[in-house]
Specification:
By secondary structure, the protein is α/β, with parallel strands linked by helices. Helix content is 43%, strand content 19%. Helix 1 crosses helix 5.
Amino acid sequence: MNILLICSAGMSTSMMMKRMKEAAASKHINATIWAVGEGLAKDHIPKADIILLGPQVRYLFQKIDGMAEGKPVMVMDLNSYGNLDGKKVLENVLIRMRGK
């Protein structure tokens, strides 16, 4: 599973990306997880199975959803994001991917 995280500059999601990688490894889930700023999103969306937006860029949802060509796009919930709860964000991704 390829999970793309997008924020304004790619910096604020780097800790979440790390926590999500740790959570995936602990559950033996094969996932490639990476983060980019919104300016690079267009180049990375084709490689992703699901796209996650940081809460601070939720205003980009329609734009990113339009570029995603039917791939799921989610805004990370503010609580999980603020607490750097990579496990919870990964669980939300897995639920969404099952229900596509």
